[in-house]
């Protein structure tokens, strides 16, 4: 019965998977040098080349078959300029809410149910935390905010720091796609179903010149250039309004995330020992005024100091989303 309904939805909106005639998303294989004592972080799917300016990537996480402590069921995510669309195929998640502003939620923090079966999340200016009370298999598709705006007409600025029920805001054909993805037999089929839906829609609305390499810093520069050339009116205030409308965040915020990303990846590329990282040098190389400046930005984006974040990635189950991008 489920299979029959799924095929009906696929045919109605012409998103039937065709595995033989179309390029597919790329599954990034996790490193063999996985931290001892931690379960595999999950799967990272990178989009086919034609969707690289639309999708940043897709994270799939399954804890089915693993034994985790209550503390290990926490999921930590950084502040991000991206929008996301999430599914749960087994189990589910709840948001953890801190007791006071600027505090990090923990195991005993207040829990809030997510707003719907499929959840659309806007850009976040602060880190977020969730909890999975039972073994869970879920998928989070990360959209470039300007691409989501072009595809759906939604304003990322109106979604900033919000999670909403996708069924209340997305167009009817998107809801049919969400249903179709929900009933696919495995993650590869889910990705193909999603990308088959997005491909013709993105090709119809994508900018004439779009950026292929999606480092945040490069994307912020590209977005500023698009804003300058896209419409009459090029005063600084008009450009800033245009960028915030497309991305949900001001250009200054986007550039800040780009700097933090550079510092993060520089450390990972160096593969330095925990006690050998020279954070002052990292700060200068990434364009910060000093180490204190780097620490403030790190805490604002992740909730942790650079050293605590680095240790968490290497040793703590709750930082699986960070490890997945290494």
UniProtKB/TrEMBL annotation:
It comes from the Bacteria. InterPro entries: HTH_AraC. Residues 235-312 form the HTH araC/xylS-type domain. GO terms for molecular function: DNA-binding transcription factor activity; sequence-specific DNA binding. This is AraC family transcriptional regulator. It comes from Acidovorax temperans. The lineage of its organism: Bacteria, Pseudomonadati, Pseudomonadota, Betaproteobacteria, Burkholderiales.
């Amino acid at each position: 019965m489920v299979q029959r309904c799924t095929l009906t939805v696929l045919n109605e909106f012409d998103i039937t998977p065709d595995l033989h005639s179309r390029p597919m998303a790329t599954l990034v294989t996790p490193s063999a040098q996985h931290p001892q004592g931690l379960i595999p972080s999950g799967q990272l799917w990178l989009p086919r080349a034609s969707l690289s300016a639309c999708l940043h990537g897709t994270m799939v996480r399954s804890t089915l078959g693993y034994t985790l402590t209550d503390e290990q069921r926490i999921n930590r995510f950084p502040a991000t300029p991206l929008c996301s669309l999430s599914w749960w195929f087994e189990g589910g998640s709840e948001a953890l809410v801190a007791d006071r502003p600027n505090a990090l939620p923990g195991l005993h923090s207040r829990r809030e149910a997510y707003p719907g079966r499929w959840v659309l999340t806007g850009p976040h200016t602060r880190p977020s935390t969730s909890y999975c009370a039972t073994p869970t298999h879920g998928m989070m598709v990360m959209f470039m905010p300007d691409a989501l705006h072009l595809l759906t007409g939604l304003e990322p600025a109106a979604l900033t720091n919000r999670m909403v029920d996708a069924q209340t805001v997305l167009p009817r054909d998107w809801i049919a796609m969400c249903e179709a993805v929900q009933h696919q037999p495995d993650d590869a089929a889910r990705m193909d179903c999603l990308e088959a839906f997005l491909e013709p829609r993105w090709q119809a609305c994508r900018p004439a010149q779009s950026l292929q390499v999606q480092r945040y810093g490069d994307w912020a520069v590209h977005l500023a250039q698009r804003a300058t050339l896209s419409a009459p009116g090029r005063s600084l205030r008009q450009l800033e309004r245009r960028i915030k409308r497309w991305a949900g965040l001001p250009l200054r915020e986007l550039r800040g995330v780009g700097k933090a990303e550079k510092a993060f990846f520089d450390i990972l590329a160096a593969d330095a020992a925990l006690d050998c990282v020279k954070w002052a040098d990292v700060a200068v190389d990434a364009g910060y005024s000093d180490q204190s400046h780097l620490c403030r930005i790190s805490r604002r984006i992740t909730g942790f100091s650079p050293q605590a974040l680095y240790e968490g990635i290497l040793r703590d189950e709750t930082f699986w989303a960070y490890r997945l991008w290494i």
